Amino acid sequence: MAHKYGGPWSEIKLDAVEYYLQCFSKALTSARMETWYIDAFAGSGDREAERAVGGIFENAPYEIITETLDGSARRALKIEPPYKHFIFIEMDAERSSELLKVKDEFPEKDIQVRRGDANTEIQDIICRSPWTLKGESRHRGVVFLDPYSLQVDWQTLQAIAATQSLDVWYLFPIRDVTRQLSHKRSGVGSKEAKLDQVLGPEWRELYSLPPPAPMMQTDIFGVLQSEEEKEELRRVEKWQQIEAWFKKRLEGEFAYVSDPLPILVKQNRQAFSLFLAVGNPRKAAVDLAKHFASHVNRKFAPRPASRRRSGH
Question: What is this structure's pTM?
Answer without folding.
Answer: 0.86
